Amino acid sequence: MKILVTGAAGFIGMHTALALLERGDQVVGIDNINDYYDVGLKRSRLATLASQPRFRFIEMDLADRPAMAALFAAEGFERVVHLAAQAGVRYSLVNPEAYVDSNLVGFLTILEGCRHHRIEHLVYASSSSVYGGNTRMPFAEGDNVDHPVSLYAATKKANELMAHTYSHLYRLPTTGLRFFTVYGPWGRPDMAPFLFTRAILAGHAIDVFNHGQMQRDFTYVDDIVEALLRVTDKQPVADPDYCAQNPNPSISDAPYRVFNIGNHQPVALLDFIGCLERHLGRQAEKRLLPMQPGDVPATFADTSALEKWIDFAPATSLDDGIGRFVEWYRTYYST
């Protein structure tokens, strides 16, 4: 297959592109390599892909409509894995325009490219953030998600709605994946595993929000990628169980699906920190702080629908996953 992977310089994007290449697909990766976090890390991720003969990288901004239209016209993609986005919940409080440009305008260029060039399947990244202030656990795809608590979450919910419109109007098969706290080697520096590791090794205090009363459904990146590839290989079709009088937002009478992609095993933040401390061989000085605006106290994925769809469930324990992350971090940063 010839597959477009957007966000190829990103954490999940790099791992996904590598897995596709390893199984024999041809991959074109695009990324605008913005400076939201360390550009050097993004370049290093791309360097791991550069030696692959079936990989080609193009530096490009999703919001550049003419360039994106030309890319789709020239390349003849069969499938698209759309992982590029302006990430981060807290950053949306200070730079909301970046989320509109990347997550809304950029997603529209992807949809238009898929529509006009008969892409057989668009798989795109949504987020567990769409569940907003919901308190019923675990989060299920059929839950109402009309109350986001960050602009980032609102853009991801908008992506699901935009995708459904194109699935309905143009019969474009689309699958959205609501990622739950992905971690592992080459991870994002703005996320807890990276932030905590850097601070602990430097002897600095770590910020622990909501006074440590947080839970996250941490999911190891290899499990995420295995599920993502299986989803990419299975096109959605109109669901015969869809009922317009009582609509489930995760299915449709169009070729459209939305799935949670998580570990179904929420971990208390303080337990996560404890695991990290064991692998680093150091104790963390904890600075307990109140909840941050736009954050949520807990995430917990109901993954039964995805497991039934692709016959796969995550298998990497937190201890194994953190061990692999710490090993990579110490090697990459020579600590």
Task: Quickly describe the structure.
By secondary structure, the chain is of the alpha/beta class. It is built from ten helices and 13 strands.
Q: Could you explain how this protein is built, in words?
A:
With 335 residues, the chain is α/β, with parallel strands linked by helices. The protein contains ten helices and 13 strands. It has helices at residues 11-22, 39-50, 65-75, 96-116, 151-170, 192-202, 221-232, 269-280, 304-310, 318-333, and strands at 2-6, 26-31, 55-59, 79-82, 121-127, 174-179, 182-183, 206-208, 215-216, 219-220, 256-261, 267-268, 286-288. The chain has a seven-stranded parallel sheet, sandwiched between helices. A two-stranded parallel ribbon has the order 7-10. Helix 8 packs across helix 10 (318-333). The radius of gyration is 19 Å and the shape is globular. It starts with a strand and ends with a helix. The model has no long low-confidence stretch (mean pLDDT 94).
Features:
seven-stranded parallel beta sheet
Shape: globular
Indicate the structural class: alpha/beta
Q: Alpha-carbon distance between the termini?
A: 40 Å
Regions with little confidence, pLDDT below 50 for 5+ residues: none
Radius of gyration over alpha carbons? 19 Å
Mean pLDDT: 94
Number of helices: 10
SSE layout and pairings?
Blueprint: E1 2-6, H1 11-22, E2 26-31, H2 39-50, E3 55-59, H3 65-75, E4 79-82, H4 96-116, E5 121-127, H5 151-170, E6 174-179, E7 182-183, H6 192-202, E8 206-208, E9 215-216, E10 219-220, H7 221-232, E11 256-261, E12 267-268, H8 269-280, E13 286-288, H9 304-310, H10 318-333
Parallel strand pairs: 1-2, 1-4, 2-3, 4-5, 5-6, 6-11, 7-10, 8-13
Antiparallel strand pairs: 9-12
Helix pairs in contact: 1-2, 1-7, 3-4, 4-5, 6-8, 8-10
